[in-house]
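Why run this: before we spend reagent on co-expression, it is cheaper to look at a predicted model of the complex and decide which construct boundaries make sense. The entries below are exactly what would go into the expression plan.
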Amino acid sequence: MTTDYSNTQLHDAQLPTIDAIDFEYISPTHIKCTRILGAMWSLFFPLLLVILVSLPKGLLPEALSPVLTVIFSILSGVFFLYFIYLWFAEPIKAYALREQDLSYRSGLLFRKVITQPIARIQHVELKRGPLDRRFELAKLQVFSAGGAMHTFEIPGLELKKAQAIRQFILSHKGGSNDG
Amino acid sequence: MTDNTPHSERPAANESTKEWHRISPIAVMFYALRFIRGFVGNLAYLLPALLVGYNQIQKNPQAAIPLSIGLAVLILVNAILSYWFFQYRLTANHIEIRSGIFSKKYVNLPFNRIQNVEVSHPWYYRPFGFATLKLDSAGSVQQEANIAALQSQFAEQLRREILNQKATGASAAAIVEVDADDIDIAGQPQQGVPQETLLNSRALKDLVLHGIANNRVWIVLGALAPFIDNITEGLPEQLQAQGIDSIQIFYADSTPVWQLGLGVIVIFLVVMALMSLLSVVGAIITFFGYTLSKVDGKYIRRSGLFTRHEITMPRSRLQMITCQQDWLDRIFNRINIKFEQINSGGSNNGQQGQPSITEGTNKIIVPSVTPSERQDLLNDAYPDNQLSRIHFHRISKRYLIRFYGLLFLLATPLSALFVSNGNYGLLTLVLGFSGFASLLIYMRYLRWGVNFDGHFTYIRKGCFGVDYHVFEAYKLQQIRIKQSIWQKKHGLASVQFILASGAFTVPYIAEGFAKKLADSVLYQVEHKPRSWM
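The model came back. Tokens follow.
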């Protein structure tokens, strides 16, 4: 197992480094879509709240209406915060494809960089929701043996690009996973 | 007892691979017990039906006899049908299995997809020399195969066959054909069986220590689980009937506080003693007669008091070695070693995998070894590892600030409240708890460390105990670097290593070091294609 193993000292400068990766941002169309969706959600509960207030008295049970008011207000607040977060977090999402691995950067308050070596990829999926299909976008999902919790995922890729990445992964040498 | 091996059922030897075979009829016993176990396990759901039935029986007791006969017949018929419809076939490098009474199931498992072979000898098989064979594949649970009854020798040969097949690779199909015929001649020992080397065995004393230091109560409790409800249900009523009112004992104003405290401590100690006793029993049930041996690159673990389990794991499947030492282990100076491989559980992140009676097939655990034995085992699996010498990079002190800040925010108002109330009992509780929590976090900070020596990655973590995790960098599946705004300001980052056996996070290390770690580990994975399985 370890016979062909070499352990020559590599100086830091020689190693390819994550720091030098040139990240590419995800599709602006996707960012716009998510923002619009977020806005719609953050308007949905205030709208319900307005409807609730303007309803004629006695249509709803006496006890129900204050409970609903509280629930809808909380949800309005949550979705509004979520919308603000989305607004700033979406444009940060970026990815990079190197010869040997795939990286994805995300997170506004908690910056996260995930790197997935291509040789460890088990299978690839392209997922396309209704909006993705409408705007020629796709979400790339990459599965490794690290388990479902650690699925590598890049949203909002242009379909052509996503297909190209998938093709690159599939035709990558060195993906010998069978013992 | 008819022989289940294929050669007794058909004449021509080279047709062996074309025919479907049944397993030994003794499997009826296996299926019957499995049915009963399933029945007891689902007792909670069946309870309403049982209660109705119980009432009915109380009304007319003469119905009990036909009812139990009916149940017995049901179990027997189910077992016999399960046996009858279970058929298997060996082809060049596949095993095919047909099973199921109503819903038919067909599994075709190529040998080179089989992850694990587990041979177990349930106690009721042992007098007759039978074994069950469990084949795990990398995929889902549906893809695993249980062959309920094979002659021990045949099971053993099949296991060797499958694992050899894995070693030689799928290209050697022709050779495998010959080997498949070899299997048929059960009873005749195969020529050139490699000698097993014994790496470790555990004596009863080790198991007792293991039972005390590691909570294995659940093994015993797990077996009792269906009955616990019944045991506890009647308890308060019985106590009351004897004039003991448990609530009164605790809330009576007349009892002095020290008496109450002493009572609680005594009860606590008694419960603890009982628990450790049960735990020791659990450890002995699981690990009795423990041996770990190695034969051409495969680890074989055998243990078990009632049912002897045999788990085989190819060395190449090994993802990580964990040396675990809880605080009691530290007192005894013992270490639990885990040889971890692919965690097919999925949701579990592998750090605290809930073991079962068999300890699962996804890891081989060596219970309570001495430090020198640990070193031997480690050196055997990972030659050139430097665990005993490596210097660990500790995490930043800022890790503490977050927790201490939170604790301070929670504890101060509470303490102030209790001081103003004059409720000193609760104040001591709050202060005591905060003190303990601070100590806990501080210990965790002290333990956490990481380093990389060019081939192996070492992670140290723990609290009062210490866990060491060692893995070969090229086994990595994915790496994540996380950084909050606050961490970024101070040049810190967390790094998470994702392996097939689970994920490990090291928080609050210097940003530069985290990136260097990631770069070097990624280089190990990528510079040369190497199989991680």
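The two ends of chain A are 11 Å apart (CA to CA). Residues 175-179 of chain A have pLDDT under 50 and may be disordered. Bring this page to Monday's planning discussion.
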